[in-house]
Amino acid sequence: MAAVTAILAAVIGTFVTGTGSDVQPSAQAGVTFDYDGATDELTVRVIDAGNVDALYIENRDDPVQNGDISSPNGWDTNVDGDRRVVNEDPDGGDSVVIDGTANDDDVVITGEVDGEETLLDGWELE
Hints:
There is one protein chain. The chain has 126 residues and is mostly beta strands. The relative contact order is 0.24. It has one helix spanning 2-17; strands at residues 30-36, 41-48, 54-59, 69-73, 85-87, 95-98, 107-113, 116-123. The chain has a four-stranded antiparallel β-sheet with strand order 1-2-6-4, with no helix packed on it. The chain has a four-stranded antiparallel β-sheet with strand order 5-3-7-8, with no helix packed on it.
């Protein structure tokens, strides 16, 4: 009985003091990568937008240029100041083709929830 009371007091204390309110949700989304070596095109497709507010694609080896983006479905046609491809309202089925992607490039997908970014997935063909 004393153990139950102690646990209940701890749970109530957490809610009253707001200790648990600083927990930020982690970004979660499903994406796929499809690389065409004949054309050096990488297609990134959102399978499930999960809980993200925005998605970003970044090529860490060769920054994406505005002219590298083709067939955007749900994605912006221009890169942001950090040279990332941006999708500010992701939905399942959104896709984009990034031209000129070399087979040794390091491409990463970052998701944003409440202003916090989380690395979701990466692609690198070696």
